[in-house]
């Protein structure tokens, strides 16, 4: 079976002084989260679409989902304190409520990347059915500079550099085994879900994203997203 998990657990601290997490802010005429979920509802192969959100916002999430989304596959689940804990909370829900097999996969996506396309979703599904882990990326346009404090330590070759996006997709059993292998110290270094599999020695396959599949993180991003929605409409 194929499952989707929309990660909506962030607090949105880089958005500035706003009254709610960024995934609930309005983009055009509805919450950013809803724009994202609508793209996943269009994919008929998903057996369930989980929205994993902060415990304090569980009721609010259920309310807006009930208002805008009419699909029984969509479930609202409580997330964790940080990204990968939220991811694993969703996996725990799938283990509890569905009869998972060794072939089942999950397509995970940031709630605040509302411009995902059906092509990107389909490519992730195809790759996840073949590989244990999949990352969506775009080639780096600018030169990447690695530094420490105020000095450059290295400049990697740009042609081998990519910018990570989501979805990040996994064979569910491979993800569980990889996460269980990690030490407490390794889990503390996780800044990215695919790193779970990398640290466990798994191969991570690449899928091409799109530059417009960006993450709404700052007030500037929200202005750009608003302009993009208005242009498309």
Automatic annotation (TrEMBL):
<dbReference type="InterPro" id="IPR029044">
    <property type="entry name" value="Nucleotide-diphossugar_trans"/>
</dbReference>
<feature type="site" description="Positions ribitol 5-phosphate for the nucleophilic attack">
    <location>
        <position position="158"/>
    </location>
</feature>
<dbReference type="InterPro" id="IPR034683">
    <property type="entry name" value="IspD/TarI"/>
</dbReference>
<dbReference type="Pfam" id="PF01128">
    <property type="entry name" value="IspD"/>
</dbReference>
<dbReference type="InterPro" id="IPR018294">
    <property type="entry name" value="ISPD_synthase_CS"/>
</dbReference>
<feature type="site" description="Transition state stabilizer">
    <location>
        <position position="14"/>
    </location>
</feature>
<keyword id="KW-0548">Nucleotidyltransferase</keyword>
<comment type="similarity">
    <text>Belongs to the IspD/TarI cytidylyltransferase family. TarI subfamily.</text>
</comment>
<feature type="site" description="Positions ribitol 5-phosphate for the nucleophilic attack">
    <location>
        <position position="215"/>
    </location>
</feature>
<dbReference type="InterPro" id="IPR050088">
    <property type="entry name" value="IspD/TarI_cytidylyltransf_bact"/>
</dbReference>
<dbReference type="GO" id="GO:0050518">
    <property type="term" value="F:2-C-methyl-D-erythritol 4-phosphate cytidylyltransferase activity"/>
</dbReference>
<protein>
    <recommendedName>
        <fullName>Ribitol-5-phosphate cytidylyltransferase</fullName>
        <ecNumber>2.7.7.40</ecNumber>
    </recommendedName>
</protein>
<feature type="site" description="Transition state stabilizer">
    <location>
        <position position="22"/>
    </location>
</feature>
<feature type="binding site">
    <location>
        <begin position="80"/>
        <end position="86"/>
    </location>
    <ligand>
        <name>CTP</name>
    </ligand>
</feature>
<comment type="function">
    <text>Catalyzes the transfer of the cytidylyl group of CTP to D-ribitol 5-phosphate.</text>
</comment>
<keyword id="KW-0961">Cell wall biogenesis/degradation</keyword>
<keyword id="KW-0808">Transferase</keyword>
<feature type="binding site">
    <location>
        <begin position="7"/>
        <end position="10"/>
    </location>
    <ligand>
        <name>CTP</name>
    </ligand>
</feature>
<dbReference type="InterPro" id="IPR034709">
    <property type="entry name" value="TarI"/>
</dbReference>
<comment type="pathway">
    <text>Cell wall biogenesis; poly(ribitol phosphate) teichoic acid biosynthesis.</text>
</comment>
<keyword id="KW-0777">Teichoic acid biosynthesis</keyword>
């Amino acid at each position: 079976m194929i499952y989707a998990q929309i990660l909506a657990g962030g607090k949105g601290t880089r958005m500035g002084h706003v009254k709610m997490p960024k995934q609930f802010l309005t983009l055009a005429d509805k919450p950013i989260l809803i724009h994202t979920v609508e793209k996943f509802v269009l994919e008929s192969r998903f057996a369930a679409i989980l929205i994993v959100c902060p415990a304090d916002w569980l009721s609010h999430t259920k309310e807006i989902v009930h208002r805008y989304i009419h699909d029984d596959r969509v479930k609202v689940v409580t997330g964790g304190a940080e990204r990968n804990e939220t991811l694993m909370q969703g996996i725990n829900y799938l283990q509890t409520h569905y009869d998972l097999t060794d072939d089942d996969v999950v397509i995970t996506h940031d709630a605040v990347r509302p411009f995902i396309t059906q092509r990107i979703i389909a490519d992730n599904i195809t790759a996840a059915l073949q590989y244990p882990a999949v990352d969506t990326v775009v080639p780096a346009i600018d030169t990447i500079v690695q530094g420490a404090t105020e000095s450059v330590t290295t400049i990697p070759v740009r042609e081998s550099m990519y910018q990570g996006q989501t979805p990040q997709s996994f064979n569910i059993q491979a993800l569980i085994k990889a996460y269980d292998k990690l030490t407490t110290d390794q889990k503390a270094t996780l800044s990215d879900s695919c790193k779970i599999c990398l640290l466990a020695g798994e191969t991570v396959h690449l899928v091409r994203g799109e530059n417009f599949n960006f993450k709404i993180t700052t007030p500037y991003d929200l202005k750009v997203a608003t302009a993009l929605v208005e242009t498309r409409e």
